[in-house]
Amino acid sequence: MIGKLIAKIKKTEAPIVVGLDPMLGFIPERIRQGAFQDLGETLEGAAEAVYRFNEELVEALCDVIPAVKPQIAMYEQFGVPGVAAFKRTVDLCHAKGLLVIGDVKRGDIGSTSAAYAVGHLGRVGVGGKSYAPFDEDFATVNPYLGSDGVKPFAEVCKENNKGIFVLVKTSNPSSGEFQDQPVSGKPLYELVGEKVNEWAQDAPDPEAEGYSEIGAVVGATYPEMGKRLRKIMPKSYILVPGYGAQGGRGKDLVHFFNEDGLGAIVNSSRGIIAACKQEAYASFGEDHFAEAARAAVFDMKKDIAEALGW
To answer: What share of the chain is helix, strand, coil (3-state, %, to 5)?
Structure first.
């Protein structure tokens, strides 16, 4: 699957993934009210508004980006209707030719981890049939429980041509409370990076120019740590959150990429999907939020290209 992602990055010339993390406050009044008129001010109405918002965004962006990253919590908050909207969003994105990184941050052990992996990346048997429940292309995985939590995902990836991104150094300010603590003379995030590199050796994608189906999450807000981790995990693709709204910029991203110009994909969520609320894109207005998002993607693409000397 990482080979497909690389191909789409090259085609769009955009190592960018847009986080589809909608909040009701991001959604224009016309969409919210339309959904509420149809389904009431209910969980169903809220979930429908989220889906309609995503629908316009995907239509505007599907030809200029390779992938999207829906954060499942933004859907789960609306209960069962929200989870249904998550699945509808995954299917919509696939129909429009986009790859989907399910930002689910799952991590458990044994049969529980296997069930998470099958639910998001694999197929579950029901009687004599099998089904792909959510069917994302990639999922984010929390490694805190160790290999027992990650190996079931790696096995499902091999069986279904899927991939994962393992949390190594996250972009949030308090990440250092645990991730930066010294263990055997190294910060914990380096030990996790070394383990990711070990797992990556066992999961090559023959169509991915040497890259593995086992990738990593490393925040743009920590460029020096990203530089170190790039060397520790040379064949793991790095999913880079923290661009834009969290403060990351193109100049912070240089060392996340390899010399081949590959190796990283940069995420922006509200910096894209809520671009119309920023001064730079306010002229588009709320009703044209999708056009504002498209403009923000082009600006992000330019910023990254200039930083990398493309």
So the answer is: 55, 15, 30
* pLDDT digit string, tens, across residues 190-219: 999 999 999 999 887 888 889 999 999 999
Percent of the chain with pLDDT over 70: 98
User: What is the b/e burial string over 65-97, where b = at least 16 CB atoms within 10 angstroms of the residue's CB?
Assistant: bbbbbbbbebbeebeebbebbbbbbbebbeeee
Evaluated on CA atoms 245, 246, 248, 253, the torsion sign reads negative
| DSSP bridge pairs for 310 | none
Cite the DSSP H helix spans in the chain: 2-12, 29-39, 43-61, 73-76, 79-95, 110-121, 147-160, 176-179, 188-201, 223-232, 270-273, 289-308
DSSP helix/strand/coil, 61? helix
Class of 2-308 in CATH: alpha beta
pLDDT (average), residues 246-253 = 72
DSSP bridge pairs for 212: 204
SS3 129: strand
87, 96, 105, 277: the catalytic one is: 105
DSSP annotation of 285: -
Query: How far separated are the first and last CA of the chain, in Å rounded?
Result: 25
Cα separation of 271 and 294, whole Å?
11
Q: Write down the domain spans for the chain.
A: 2-308
- Residue 157 identity (one-letter amino acid): C
| pTM across the whole model | 0.95
Distinct helix (H) and strand (E) counts, the chain? 12, 12
User: Is 11 one of the catalytic residues?
Assistant: no
Assess contact for 203 and 158: CB atoms under 8 A: yes
